[in-house]
Amino acid sequence: MYTVSNLSNHVFQAIDHHHHHRHCANAKPQITRHSIHLPISRRTEIRAHVTDNIPIVKSKSKLISQEDVINDDKRVIVGTYGRTPVVLTSGKGCKLYDVNGNEYIDLTSGIAVNALGHADPDWVEAIIDQAKTLAHVSNIYYTVPQVKLAERLVATSFADRVFFSNSGTEANEAAIKFSRKFQRSSHPNNSDPPTEFISFTNSFHGRTIGSLALTSKEHYRTPFEPVMPGVTFLKYGDIDAAQDLISSGKIAAVFVEPIQGEGGIYSATKDFLKALRIACDKAGSLLVFDEVQCGLGRTGYLWAHEAYGVTPDIMTLAKPLAGGLPIGATLVTERVNAAINFGDHGSTFAGGPLVCAAAIAVFDKVSNPSFLASVAKKGDHLKQTLKKKLEGNKHVKEIRGFGLIVGIELDVPATPLVDACRESGLLILTAGKGDIVRLVPPLVISQEELDRAVEIIHECLHVLD
Ligand SMILES: Cc1ncc(COP(=O)(O)O)c(C=O)c1O
């Protein structure tokens, strides 16, 4: 078992790794033509498949280089991402391959998504079988995979019901709406029921207007104000401040990540989550655990909050649930469900047969106790090895996290190290203010792959000098 310690609950502004600004040219750039005179070794043939009965718009097959893709992306994609200059074309297990044929060990998992790695045979088979059978019908009809997935989530958690959506931010939007509706129906004779929310420093809950209002980094919020009103940010771990504000009776719900991912791999303490639970119960506020990043096996527990012995009223899930297909889930108790009526929320795509079949394949592997034990073991091994190899380095301030969500806090920006690792065949992420290396490998990674990854980080550390 892990002991969850209070690991440096410093106040940082949450900065996710997509924070880099891009300079946009005012004038529409000229369309660049692809060069067809590149060396064969630097080409990958991309075929645009068209069916016979669709007018041929993009029927030409073309030879594409990394430079072409990057230039084309810069021309036609809205510039919200500070992308890494790599064009990934395939993956197998914990390895990714780029357009130039380079191989990388993947310690990013598509930002904590590909729990089973890339192209897991059972996951692929589940998707192919379901795609051949029924991919989408909307939520007007009942479908079997949605019910089967919900049954699994309910059977293994505190929750009684599930609402499906398509992403982490949507799972949190549903939690916001359900909290408001719960408070309205709990205070039928009060024209001013609790509608406000508490969130914490370093938190990341998503990019849509409601979830964005709960996301701590001002840089993400201020250009889009007014966001949802009524959110107060308290210091992550500050029990007294949370108790004070919750007892005001104005709080519909408290949103908290048991382990903060984007914010910099900060773990809550048992005392903090317990105090939130008690204060919410006293005041009638709901406690929402955002396990979009830390949930579903990443900590070595199926749900991260199991490590704390505290259960929420609502839990949100997304990233790894369908192993790489888009899904979100908002798990609620019967008490919360009782406040939700027909028509209160919905989604065209959510919980479709295809994505749910993929999620069942993921869930049935990850929820196996021996699989979870292997994640815990590999996580311990990773942290021990990192400590052994890196702790003497003057730039390494702290190595923290648990299971396979691990942070290496540096005293300098992590980007040069990330770049050097990539050049050496290892993909890693940053977190926090950009000074934290975030390691979130596929949960199926082998000890040998982890050892090789640590070796590469160790070999590249000198670039920080
Ligand atoms: C804890 C947490 N909540 C919510 C989100 C938002 O998820 P999505 O990007 O799927 O909307 C993220 C994404 O990083 C997250 O880490």
How would you describe this protein?
The protein is an alpha/beta fold. The chain folds into two domains: 40-119 and 369-464, Aspartate Aminotransferase, domain 1 (Alpha-Beta Complex), CATH 3.90.1150; 123-366, 3-Layer(aba) Sandwich (Aspartate Aminotransferase, domain 2), CATH 3.40.640.10. Helix content is 33%, strand content 17%. It is built from 14 helices and 19 strands. It has helices spanning 66-76, 109-112, 121-133, 144-155, 168-186, 209-213, 218-221, 239-246, 270-283, 334-337, 353-366, 369-390, 415-423, 447-460; strands spanning 44-46, 62-64, 88-92, 95-98, 103-106, 161-165, 196-200, 231-234, 251-256, 259-260, 266-267, 286-290, 314-317, 328-332, 396-402, 405-410, 426-427, 429-431, 436-439. It has a seven-stranded mixed β-sheet with strand order 6-14-13-12-9-7-8, with helices on both faces. β18 and β19 form a beta hairpin. The longest helix has 22 residues, at 369-390. The protein is globular and about 65 Å long. Mean pLDDT is 89; it is low at 1-61. The chain binds pyridoxal-5'-phosphate (PLP). Residues 111, 167-169, 172, 204-206, 257, 261-262, 290, 292-293, 318 line the site of pyridoxal-5'-phosphate.
What topology emerges from the helices and strands here?
Elements lengths: L43 E3 L15 E3 L1 H11 L11 E5 L2 E4 L4 E4 L2 H4 L8 H13 L10 H12 L5 E5 L2 H19 L9 E5 L8 H5 L4 H4 L9 E4 L4 H8 L4 E6 L2 E2 L5 E2 L2 H14 L2 E5 L23 E4 L10 E5 L1 H4 L15 H14 L2 H22 L5 E7 L2 E6 L4 H9 L2 E2 L1 E3 L4 E4 L7 H14 L5
Parallel strand pairs: 5-17, 7-8, 7-9, 9-12, 12-13
Antiparallel strand pairs: 1-2, 3-4, 4-5, 6-14, 10-11, 13-14, 15-16, 16-19, 18-19
